[in-house]
Design goal:
By secondary structure, this protein is α+β, with helices and mostly antiparallel strands. Among the domains are: 34 residues; 33 residues, no CATH class. 29% of the residues lie in helices and 38% in strands. It is built from four helices and six strands, in the order H-E-H-E-E-E-H-E-E-H. Strand 3 and strand 4 form a beta hairpin. It is elongated.
């Protein structure tokens, strides 16, 4: 869903109200252990400062990141809205070291006839530096 107009937003909100009304009228549908509603909202089309501005406008939020995405979460009791973007939009990847290890591998020259040999393998290690303050990032604008 790509919400472009106030009419689209209005319909989306009406649908959420209808969901709440349905649950209120039919509480048994929640079962014994109801889980909260989670809205996943893609913001991958936004620049870093646009994402930060939107995140800051959400008020009290939690920040998080995984292998691919950076997200902010706004909680409403058991429910939450999660706004996410590609991690590299907000964070900068930096190499923090290299792991050197011996691994068995086939000799490339005579692959089919020679048993495995021990070779040295180096694997770069990375960490991600994420903007510590979305307020500051929102004020920077796109540079």
């Amino acid at each position: 869903m790509d919400i472009q107009t106030n009419n689209d937003v209005g319909q989306y909100v009406k649908d959420l109200h209808a969901l709440a009304d349905f649950i209120e009228a039919n509480p048994a549908v929640l079962g014994q252990f109801p889980m909260g509603v989670r809205l996943f909202c893609s913001a991958t089309h936004l620049s870093a400062s646009e994402f930060a501005q939107l995140a800051v406008s959400m008020g009290d939020i939690e920040k998080g990141a995984d292998q691919h995405f950076y997200e902010v979460t706004k909680r409403f009791g058991d429910h939450k809205v999660q706004l996410f973007t590609q991690r590299e939009t907000i964070c900068t990847k930096r190499e923090v070291g290299v792991i050197t290890e011996e691994v068995e591998d086939y000799d490339p020259e005579v692959l089919a006839t020679v048993p495995k040999v021990t070779v040295v393998k180096e694997t770069p290690q990375y960490e991600w530096d994420c903007a510590p303050s979305l307020h500051e990032l929102a004020q920077q604008g796109d540079q």
